[in-house]
Amino acid sequence: MRRQSSIFADPAEPTDTAEPTDAASRRFLSSYRDLMDVPGFWRLAAIGMASKLPPGMVGLSLLLLVGQDHAYGTAGLAVSALAVGQGVTAPLRGRLIDRHAPRPVLLGCLAAYLTTTLVLVLAVRGGGSVPFVLALAAAMGASAPPVAVMMRSVWHRSTDTGTLATAMALDSSMMGTALITGPVIAGWLSLSVSPVVPFAVVAVLTAAAVGLLVNSPGPLPCTARNGHWLGPLASAPLRRLLAADALFVMAVTAVDVVLPIHARACHAAGFTGLYLGALSVGSVLGSLALGTVPKLLSRGPKVSVLLCVFATGTGALTAATGMSPLAVLVVCPLAGLVIGCTFATLRTTGGDLAPEGRVTETMSWLSSLDMVGGAVGAAVFAHIAAAEGSRTALLLVPAVALLAAAIGWNTRTRQP
What we know:
The chain is mainly α. It has helices spanning 18-28, 30-36, 41-69, 72-99, 102-125, 130-143, 147-158, 164-192, 197-214, 236-265, 272-292, 302-320, 325-336, 339-353, 359-388, 390-407. Helix 3 runs antiparallel to helix 9, helix 10 runs antiparallel to helix 16 (390-407) and helix 11 crosses helix 14 (339-353).
């Protein structure tokens, strides 16, 4: 604790000149220390990380599992079915969490998820038909316990205005880290051990996350049985926020898709992994940095400000494509710097604008719009890059980001 000077101190005594420097360094990380003082912080952080690794692992794991016994086109369809099943049902699972006791909903989803995963693995290894495998992949996505989404509502409930922004920044950095490490772990286990092992790891992590959450001390988020049948969609500001979120993810996915195409066109395919890794590292570091200064964007349209910064970064990335592959690599972390921050701010704003007792459903809608934006961005910008060139495709990314900024301009967050 910071020492207080005494009014009875002897003026002749030497003063402690190290304290201001020490206090300045402490203030820099005070937001994270305040967050760590939240009751149950380490348990919540562990649940958050355990809930985010499985989504980062399961897509590649499914691709490699199905691709071993079927064509890779079928494997790609299985991954798409998984995403569709998860995205279409996410708002429904979120509404079930908000309207009923979270414990039976989470445990019911877990039982269905584990059963479906086991049947899917057995069906693939046993030579099951393609329609059956695709149906099981969709069911697996539809039954996934929404722990990662629910954690955002738990953070909203567990923190105050002084620590919420830092908690959302931490949550976003965890997701970025999981998206980097999850595929690495899944790929290594699938190729070095067995294609089945990643599913065992995913099952254990998912069960652990659910078990820790439902047995956490204190009540889980309260339920809301009444309200408009449209739920969060009845709110005009939330509809604008959802549209801005979808466009933002569309722009981010466009960068992820176009950069490998550009690297291949420049005969620098070896840079592909470095480009995407640098973007992700920049995103994680940006999230952690913003978490140290949660009041930096406490006033004004923070979502739109961050989207404008992202548009500037992607513009610089487009300019770098006219120089060299190394120049693109140098700019990638800068272009990715606000990606995680923007995701965190979108979630913070969504929680602030959510109807009473509908935070989990609101976060589920944001997750669903993430998938929609990602699917559209991948399809549209891959086509543009193939038809008009990767540089032309990248030139359109800032326009998408600025459109998202314009749509989200009137959304607001609670003031600290």
